[in-house]
Every structure is written in structure tokens, then in C-alpha cells.
Design brief:
Layout (H helix, E strand, L loop, with lengths): L1 H8 L11 E2 L2 E2 L5 H6 L17 H6 L14 H6 L1 H5 L4
Length: 90
């Protein structure tokens, strides 16, 4: 039940009743892209996806809903978390 609910909210699972509302606005059965653009994401737990990726690849997962022209890791990230720069290939 919990996983199905979370997947439905993130647009990754169909649902037959009810509504999904964000900030007072009905999302009307969102698909995953629409949900992501609204700021909703679903990150599965226990699949060990992220541990298999480098630090850079982990940071790049946030690019999906951005225009291609914005597909870069801002220097601000490395200013806030300097260790990420040193560990980017790990």
C-alpha cells in the first residue's frame, strides 16, 4: 500500500480514485515527468542504485526535469560541499 501510494503520487503508478493535490492545485493523474516538474520525485529504497553510481552521476540525476542547457553541476554545489569535488569520481 505505501509503495503504491508513493508511486502514484510521483506519477509512476496508475490509480483509480481520489486526487493528488500540491499547493492547492489538483495534479490530475500526473505522469512521472509532470510530477517531477511539479517538484515531486520517487527514489526507491533498497535497490542499491545510487551506491553503484559515482558522486558526479548521483548529482546528475537531478537534471531530468531541467532544460538541456542547464545540465551542469553548479560550482555552488562544490562551494557548499567541497568534499564532493575531491570525491566526484568515486
Amino acid at each position: 500500500g505505501k509503495t503504491s501510494l508513493l508511486r502514484a503520487i510521483a506519477g509512476r503508478h496508475p490509480y483509480s480514485g481520489g486526487t493528488i493535490t500540491l499547493d492547492g492545485q489538483d495534479l490530475m493523474h500526473p505522469n512521472a515527468v509532470q510530477a517531477a516538474r511539479a517538484g515531486i520525485a520517487y527514489v526507491p529504497q533498497g535497490r542499491e542504485v545510487f551506491p553503484l553510481m559515482s558522486v558526479t552521476e548521483n548529482l546528475q540525476t537531478g537534471f531530468a526535469c531541467l532544460p538541456r542547457s542547464e545540465h551542469h553541476i553548479p560550482d555552488r554545489i562544490y562551494d557548499l560541499f567541497p568534499v564532493l569535488q575531491q570525491m566526484k569520481d568515486r
